[in-house]
């Protein structure tokens, strides 16, 4: 346990960890920039280009399985080496994955790029396992949810900025005369390597409290006796898969003549809006689920938070107000969705999933700017899905909670498989009609929300850090 006799300030350690969460989100979202770049560079089909997500998120699944089996046979590795060492190891593995982009670019080999992404994903898996619970330890227990919330907000900030900065570096700054070359990825990922190493050094030098879990690891798979967990595993699978599918295809989708016909350097800004929507929704969700605020205060705080985050995003993207003003309409629908959900996690999840089903269907049957805005606005309603699905799934698991949590993390595999499925349909049906794949994913999430609203009632939810 943490020694609370020492009055230690955790401001610097927490600031270091929020930097880690930011880079975590940033690098993950860089995949959405890499996909159209590598697709054109190597003349790939959509299915082949989705191997980027398959290797990256597949590493989450394989890494989680290895960790689960190791914990089952020999005990929790993080508990043996410590959270700090676990994070350091994860950072160094992630740095190695970024550095391997250099030889991949030198030899211009797609297979090497995929290998680098797999190793990068393994590093992030370890960070996922170590960093999330550790953030909750940096201070008083009653403030744990707030700290995870703030750290996750920085993760969302990373996913919002990545398309703008990463897209500029790869599509413009390091592009050779506007040409698509493998070398455009060299310097950006060498910079990312240096950042991860720098964060690792800072983390190593900072004194952090030690923590050992006293929780007993249950043998077998007793957690699967709970129906909400079994259904929730599929919920996480389809949520991560659907979210990654849409993010992966937005740049290519907006380039279609019947949609917007815009270049990668412009569409990257709309991709940032998609991920920025999740950041807006997470801030609103944190306020909506706060049981200590009265109705009027809650509405006021939500409106102020929505306006503040929208202004932040608008300052990040290279678009004027007229180009993004339509997004405000969907932000209004998002606010309405929270009010309909009435701070009940299952009901809010059901409402948001159904809205996303409608938005994706509208994207499929329409064209032009209308289709662009309906698909981009899905991000607003993705916001609370990870936290609500996770909370509902582990509700009532008791001694099986840790085991159930590890199974839910494995379900991030959806981010590896569903983009491949959509990629195959994009090759045969075209990108436009291939969006029925994430629509089916959101339909299942709506079913899960409905099931939990009937079986579990008004379970209290927290905005949990993590996700993909």
Quick take:
This protein is mainly α. It is 75% helix and 0% strand. The chain is built from 22 helices and no strands.
Order of helices and strands: HHHHHHHHHHHHHHHHHHHHHH
Going by CATH, the architecture would be: Up-down Bundle
Shape: globular
Helix-and-strand structural type: mainly alpha
Number of separate strands: 0
Overall pLDDT score: 87
Major beta sheet summary: none
- Percent strand equals under 5%
**Low-confidence spans: pLDDT under 50, at least 5 residues?**
1-7
Measured between the Cα atoms of the first and last residue, the distance is 29 Å
Number of domains: 1
3D architecture notes:
- It comes from Pedobacter heparinus (strain ATCC 13125 / DSM 2366 / CIP 104194 / JCM 7457 / NBRC 12017 / NCIMB 9290 / NRRL B-14731 / HIM 762-3).
- The chain has 468 residues and is mostly helical.
- The chain has a single domain, classed as Up-down Bundle (Growth Hormone, Chain: A).
- Helices cover 75% and strands 0% of the residues.
- The chain contains 22 helices and no strands.
- The chain has helices at 11-41, 46-49, 51-74, 77-81, 83-99, 101-107, 110-135, 144-173, 186-205, 227-254, 264-288, 295-316, 321-324, 327-341, 345-365, 368-376, 378-382, 385-394, 401-410, 414-429, 431-434, 436-455.
- Helix 15 packs antiparallel against helix 22.
- The chain is globular.
């Amino acid at each position: 346990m943490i020694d609370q006799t020492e009055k230690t300030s955790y401001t610097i350690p927490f600031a270091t960890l929020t930097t880690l969460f930011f880079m975590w989100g940033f690098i993950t979202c860089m995949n959405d920039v890499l996909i159209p770049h590598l697709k054109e560079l190597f003349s790939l089909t959509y299915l082949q280009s989705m191997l980027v997500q398959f290797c990256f998120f597949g590493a989450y699944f394989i890494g989680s399985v290895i960790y689960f089996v190791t914990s089952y046979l020999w005990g929790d590795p993080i508990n043996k080496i410590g959270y700090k060492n676990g994070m350091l190891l994860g950072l160094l593995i992630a740095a190695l994955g970024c550095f391997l982009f250099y030889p991949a670019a030198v030899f211009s080999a797609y297979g090497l790029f995929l290998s680098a992404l797999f190793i990068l994903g393994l590093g992030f898996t370890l960070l996922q396992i170590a960093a999330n619970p550790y953030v909750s330890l940096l201070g008083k227990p009653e403030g744990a949810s707030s700290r995870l919330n703030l750290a996750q907000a920085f993760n969302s900030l990373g996913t919002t900025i990545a398309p703008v900065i990463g897209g500029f570096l790869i599509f413009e700054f390091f592009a050779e005369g506007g040409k698509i070359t493998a070398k455009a990825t060299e310097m950006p990922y060498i910079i990312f390597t240096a950042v991860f190493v720098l964060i690792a050094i800072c983390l190593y030098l900072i004194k952090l409290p030690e923590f050992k879990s006293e929780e007993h690891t249950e043998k077998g798979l007793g957690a699967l006796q709970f129906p909400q967990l079994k259904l929730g595993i599929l919920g996480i699978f389809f949520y991560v898969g659907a979210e990654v599918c849409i993010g992966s295809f937005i740049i290519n989708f907006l380039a279609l003549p019947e949609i917007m016909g815009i270049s990668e350097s412009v569409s990257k800004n709309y991709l940032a809006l998609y991920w920025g929507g999740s950041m807006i929704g997470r801030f609103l969700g944190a306020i909506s689920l706060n049981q200590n605020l009265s109705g009027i205060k809650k509405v006021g705080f939500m409106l102020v938070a929505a306006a503040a985050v929208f202004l932040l995003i608008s300052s990040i993207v290279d678009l004027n107000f007229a180009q993004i003003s339509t997004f405000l309409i969907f932000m209004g629908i998002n606010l309405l969705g929270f009010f309909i959900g009435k701070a009940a996690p299952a009901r809010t999840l059901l409402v948001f999933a159904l809205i996303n089903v409608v938005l994706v269907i509208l994207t499929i049957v329409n064209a032009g700017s209308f289709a662009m805005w309906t698909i981009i606005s899905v991000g607003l309603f993705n916001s609370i899905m990870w936290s609500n699905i996770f909370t509902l799934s582990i509700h009532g698991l008791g001694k099986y909670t840790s085991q159930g949590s590890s199974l839910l993390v494995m379900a991030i595999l959806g981010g590896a498989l569903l983009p491949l499925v959509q990629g195959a349909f994009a090759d045969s049906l075209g990108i436009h009609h291939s969006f029925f794949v994430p629509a089916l994913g959101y339909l299942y999430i709506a079913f899960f929300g409905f099931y939990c609203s009937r079986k579990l009632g008004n379970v209290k939810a927290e905005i949990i850090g993590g996700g993909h």
